[in-house]
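User: I'm curious whether this sequence folds into something compact or stays loose and floppy. Could you predict its structure so I can see for myself?
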Amino acid sequence: MQQETVIRGNSSVLATNKVLRNTYSLLALTLLFSAFMAKLSMMYHFPQLGPFMFLGIFFALSYITHKLSNSGWGLVAVFALTGFLGLTLGPMLNYYLSSAAGSQTVMQALGGTAITFFAISAYAIKTEKDFSFLRGFIIVGFVVAILAMLAAYYLEITGLSLAVSTLFIVVSSALILYETNRIIRGGETNYITATVGLYVSIYNIFVRLTHILGVFGND
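Assistant: Here's the prediction. I'll summarize afterward.
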C-alpha cells in the first residue's frame, strides 16, 4: 500500500514537471514568434487597431485556442493568437522608438517585464501556498481593467490611463502566480491553456509598463 502511494506520488510529480516543461518551452517559442511578428509589423507599418476590433479578434482567437487545446490544432491556434498580439506591438514600438528616449523606455519595460515574470514564477514554484483564491480577483480585475481601458481611450484622461495600466500589471502578475501555482499543484494539466495565460500576462505587463515609463519619460 505504501509502495503504491509512493509510485502514485512520483507519477504525479513527473506529470507536473512535464506540464511545466512543456509550458515553458511553448511559451519561449511563442515569445520568439511574437517578436518576429512585431518586427514585421514595424517594418510594414501595421495600423493600430481600435479597442473594439482588437478585443474582438483577441477573444475570438482565445476562444478558438481554448476549444482546440486538447488537439494538435491547439498549437496552431496558440501561434495564431500570439502572432496577432505580436503584430499589434508594431505601432506602439514604432511610436516609442521614434522619440529621443524611446529605445531606453522600451528596454526598461522589457527588463522590468522579465524581472517580474521570473521573480513571480520562482516564488510560485518554491512556495507551498495555494493561490487558487486569486481566481475571482483575476476575473473581476480583468473585466474592470477592460472597461476602464475603453473609458480611458475615449475620455483621453492621462490619470485614468495610468490607473488602467497599473491595474493591468497587478492583475497580470496575479495571473502568473495563479497559473504557475496551478501547474505545480497539479490543477493545470494542459500546457496550451497554461501557455496562453502566461503569454497574455507577459504581453500586458510589457505594454502597460512601456506606457507608464513613456508617460513619466515624456514620450
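Summary: The radius of gyration is 19 Å. Residues 1-10 have pLDDT under 50 and may be disordered.
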